[in-house]
Each structure stands twice: as structure tokens, then as C-alpha cells.
Write a structure and sequence with these properties.
Layout (H helix, E strand, L loop, with lengths): L5 H28 L10 H55 L6 H22 L20 E3 L5 E3 L7 E5 L2 E4 L4 H6 L6 E6 L5 E7 L2 H7 L8 E5 L5 E5 L4 E2 L1 E2 L8 E4 L2 E6 L8 E5 L6 H14 L5 H61 L3 H25 L9
Antiparallel strand pairs: 1-2, 3-4, 5-13, 6-12, 7-8, 7-13, 8-9, 10-11, 11-12
Helix pairs in contact: 1-8, 2-3, 2-7, 3-6, 6-7
Amino acid sequence: MIRISSQQIFSGGINRLQELNSNLNSTQQQISTGKRVNKPSDDPVAAARILKLDQELSRVSTYERNVNLADNRLSQEESALAGSVDVLQRIRELTVQAGNGSLSPNDRRSISSEMKERLGQLANIGNTRDASGEYIFSGFQGSVQAFQQDDAGKYVYQGDEGQRVLEIDDGVTVPISDNGKGIFVNVPAAATGDYTNNVSGGFISGVSVVNEADLSAAYSGTFPDDIALTVDGAGNIQAQDSQGNTLTVSPPAYESGEPFVVAGVEATISDVTPGAGDSFTLKINEKQSVFGTIENLIAGLDSLDKGTAEGRAAYDDLIAQSLVNLDSAQESMLLKQTELGGRMNAVESTRNFLADSSVYTNEIRSQLQDVDYAEAISNLSFQSFVLQAAQQSFAQVSQLSLFDRL
């Protein structure tokens, strides 16, 4: 016979009631929070997996913020470049208009006046800021204004050549900025001619690249550089590259005001005395800021005198070279816009991938953590019934005593 004391009955009953009450409270918590796993002890294996899934969701959320930042920065830069192209297109239209030979000096000054306004507008675009107040075209020096006017009133680039990169997924980075030097400053310039030594008082004009293939071939695979020109005592034009190699001139005989071609570059020399020692330089591979192109154009419209042959030639060269330079600047910006489009596509693809990853991870997490309300409510009803029965049973048993039978 097993003897059971009253203390054992009380202790066992209370323990059972506490266990049933704990289960009931756990089910109530699941229903109120909507989570099947509220603490690791509810399901240790599921809790460990949920922790890893939470870390994955946190990672995805961080990268999604980076994706939004990258998209905003790239969209802002693309918008700024589109505005720059529009400004340059208007300046090009004004340049073509300025090339009209029937314009009076007042007409040219009127065109110059609008160009000055457009120049300021382009500078404002070059100094675009992002939402945090940083200049988007200043490279790494976001707090430095990209383009500032020097003492002569010319716009000068003040940033560096850095390019900011942002990680938008594990091992996936995307450039989110471009420095203004590469976009607005290092623009291929039209070929130009200048005096190295002016003896006769002549001039060189009409310089333009007419055959890119001949220009490249003339340098035997090396980078095209300046070409030195002289007119010897026999009346022939002599040409040499920067390494002292002789280049072929066609036609070789000098004739004032008549064009000739050397290494794919056409030019005209006028009013020079053969053998007098005059020398010229054809600048082939120059870079010029788009601001410098517009500034030179404005200065020429305001000051060049078309009353002399040299003045008319200089003015015509200014218009022709400015058009080439403006076209080069527009092409540079359009190429950059194309590049930005590729980056934005990569950002959008990453955004979609992260969104899909977030949905998939949330689904797995939901399966592990979320409560089945139908099952939980059924359990709650059953546990409530069991707890009530246990309480009533305990109440009756706890009143039993041998003294009642004496």
C-alpha cells in the first residue's frame, strides 16, 4: 500500500494547476501577439531559424535603403545632365545664329548677353546639391562648390576626381557620382592653330580635322600631338610632329589664303613671307572646359573686329571651333547619360531582387513564427475547460479530512 499524505495531494494539485495555467497563458499570449514562438523555449529550433531570418531581413532592409539612395543620386545626376544638354543646345543655336555674316555688332552683343545668362545657368547646374546639401559633381569633396569663378571671372573646377561608390548587395557596388572635371572640363577641343613665332604679321586660320584615319596613321600608333609648321625659303610648307618626324603636306607649296592638309588636318596660312622665320603650331589633342568654350565665345562676340581679313578669319574660326567644342561637350554628356542609364538599370534589377528576397524570407519566417488562430483558439477553449475541471476537482479533494469521519 502506498501512503499519500495531504501535503502531497496539495502539492501535486497546485503544481498541476500551475502547469495548466501556464499553458493557458502561453496560448493567450500567442493569440494576442499573433506569434507562435514568443521566446526560445516555445520552439528552440524554430527560434534559431527565426533569428537567422531576422538577420537576413535586416541585411535586405539595409541594402534597400542603399538602393533608394543610389537611385536618388543617379536620378538627380541624370536630371542635371539633361538640363546641361538643353542649355548647350540653346547656346549652340545662338552660336549658329552668331555665324550669320549680316549681323551687326549690336546683334552679336545681344547674342552674347543671352549666352552670359546661359553660362550662369550651366554653372548653377554644375553646382547642383543633393538632399544632404553636398555638391554632386565635386567628387569626394562634397562640401566644396564644384565650379567657382576666379579673379578673371572664369569658372574653375574646385573639386577632385573622386567617384563615390555604394554597395547595394553583397559584393555588388555601383558608382553613385561623377566628378565635374570628367564631364565639364576634360572635353576634347577642336583643332586650333597659333603662332609660335610671328615675323611677317601673317596668320593661320581654318584649322579643322578632316580625316581622323589619316591623323591617327600619321603618328604610327602614338598619341596625336601638336604639329609644327614653317614656310621655307623655297615657298614650301614644312611640317613636323612633336618628336621631330617630318609629315607630308598636300599641296606642299605655300599659297596665301589657300588651304592645305597635313596628317588629316586642314589649315590655311595667309600673308606670310617665305623664309622669314614664321612658325605655327597646330594643336591637335587639346582639352577645353565647356565653360571655357562659352567664355571664349562670349569674349569673341564682344571684341573681335570683322573689319580686317585677319579679324574675319579669327571670327569664323571662333564660330567653327566653338560649334565643334559644343558638340563634343554634348556628346560627352550624352555618353555619360547612357552610362547612368546602365547604372540605374543595375540598381533597379537589384531592387527587384531584394524585394523578392524579402518576400521569400518573410514567407518562411511567417510559417515558423505566425500562429494558426483556428488551432490556437481551439487549444485555448480546451485548456480553459481542463483548467476549470482541475480547479473543481482540487477544490473537492482539498476539503477531504479523516476528522470528518470521526
